[in-house]
Every structure is written in C-alpha cells, then in structure tokens.
Design goal:
Elements lengths: L1 H13 L14 E4 L18 E5 L2 H9 L3 H11 L7 E7 L8 E10 L2 E9 L15 E7 L8 E7 L4 E7 L15 E5 L6 H7 L4 H8 L11 E5 L2
Parallel strand pairs: 5-7
Antiparallel strand pairs: 1-4, 2-3, 3-6, 4-5, 7-8, 9-10
Helix pairs in contact: 2-3, 4-5
Length: 234
C-alpha cells in the first residue's frame, strides 16, 4: 500500500518509538503523508455527510463499510481488505456523496501520548471549474502502526487546511466500545495573525516555543499570516 510504505520509511528514518515501559510517548511524532500543498485549496462546503474515522479492527471496518453507499463501499472496502489490523490502524477521511470536483487528502498526522491530530486537505470545485452532476465519493486513507498510537484514551481531531475542525472525539484502540467519560480538550487550532510570533503565542498559551515547533513539525520559528497552528490547551 502506497501510504503505508511511505509511513514506514518515515518512521524508520526518524527512528522514533514508544518507551518500552508502558508504551508512553514523551515526544510528539509528526508524520507527513502527502506532498501536496493545501494552501491554495478552498473548502466552501460542510461536513454533514463526511466521515472521519480511526479503525483498529476488521469488525470496525465492516461496520463502517455498512454505513456507506454501495459505490463508496466497493472502492473503500477493497483498500481496507489489504489492511493488517493486527499490526495497523486505518485513518479514513470520506467526504460523502458529492458532485464532481471535490477532493480530500490526508496531509499530516501528529501523534502524542493523549491525542491523534490529523490535518486533511479538503477542496470544493471553484467557480470556473467544470462540475459534473454525477455523484462522486472522495476519500483518502492512511495506515499507522498501532505501536505508534496512544496506549490509552486519546482525543482524535481531524481539521482541514482552514483550521476548521471536522471531527473531535475521544476513543481508545484497546477498548473501542468503551464510553469515554472525560471530555477535556487537549489541543486547539489557532490562526496566525499580523504581529504574531511563536514566542508570543507560546506565552499566551502557557507553553514553550520548542513545544509548538515539535507539535507542528516546524524547523524554524518563521510564521505566515493565516497559517494554522496546533496549540496545547491547558
């Protein structure tokens, strides 16, 4: 699988793994799974019919497929059939039945001890784009080794290139049917404004520049106006 192969190469290069005792992660793991630039993508729709899921078992995958219309079920089911759920979890971004011209792609996965943050590129057709009335089912999927996932309860957030949250829920891979009682929001999305700096944002949110850089996969402190940052929520 293309996405899985890329993920495994990146994980090998980074040589990042959970601590053997208890599997706790001390450093965020940032995985880039797409080379596309989403900065020019525009999304003007809603996510009422979209589905953003983390699937950790064959039974979960089958239940998810039963929720989909037949045309989407065939293509997504074929891809899910190749997932080794004993080893991997599958992250799905599905926009639902739409007219032609829509597109979705998972661009970045951030894994922390208590969160899974997924940045998704979502595109609506432009005013001058050719749009067909034939329904399409845009979707994307990546797989992540379960040993890299949070060991206990974690917050799953999917957000698009505009910083709009498309999914926010608590879950646990080991006990997928477990009711998660706490609803503390560990992370939020912030838009960089004129005059902002990493230092000022860190001070305002009671965190550090180093933590913001690690969490967002930044190699320097340069920011762009309109850029979206993942920020710890105390």
């Amino acid at each position: 699988m293309r996405k899985l192969a890329l993920l495994l190469v990146i994980l090998t290069v980074l040589n990042i793994s959970a601590i053997a005792e208890g599997g706790a992660r001390t450093e965020p793991l940032v995985i880039s799974v797409s080379e596309k630039d989403f900065s020019t993508w525009e999304w003007r729709g809603d996510t009422e019919n979209a589905k953003f899921r983390v699937l950790s078992s064959r039974a979960q995958a089958n239940r998810f497929l039963r929720e989909l219309p037949p045309l989407a079920r065939d293509s997504i089911g074929e891809e899910l059939a190749g997932v080794n759920f004993r080893r991997d979890a599958a992250i799905i971004a599905y926009l639902g039945a739409t007219s032609g011209g829509h597109e979705v792609e998972i661009g970045q996965v951030n894994i922390n001890a208590e969160s899974l943050l997924v940045r998704v590129g979502m595109r609506s057709p432009g005013e001058d784009d050719m749009v067909t009335m034939i329904l399409t089912h845009p979707w994307d999927m990546v797989t992540v080794p379960k040993k890299q996932m949070p060991a206990g309860d974690f917050q799953f957030i999917a957000f698009n290139q505009h910083g709009e949250v498309a999914a926010d829920q608590w879950m646990n891979l080991r006990t997928p049917g477990k009711a998660i009682s706490h609803r503390k929001v560990w992370y939020k999305i912030s838009t960089v404004r004129t005059g902002d700096s990493l230092w000022a944002i860190a001070q305002e949110n009671e965190t550090t520049v180093e933590e913001l850089m690690r969490l967002n996969g930044l190699t320097d402190s340069h920011l762009l106006i309109g850029q979206h940052l993942i920020i710890p929520s105390r």
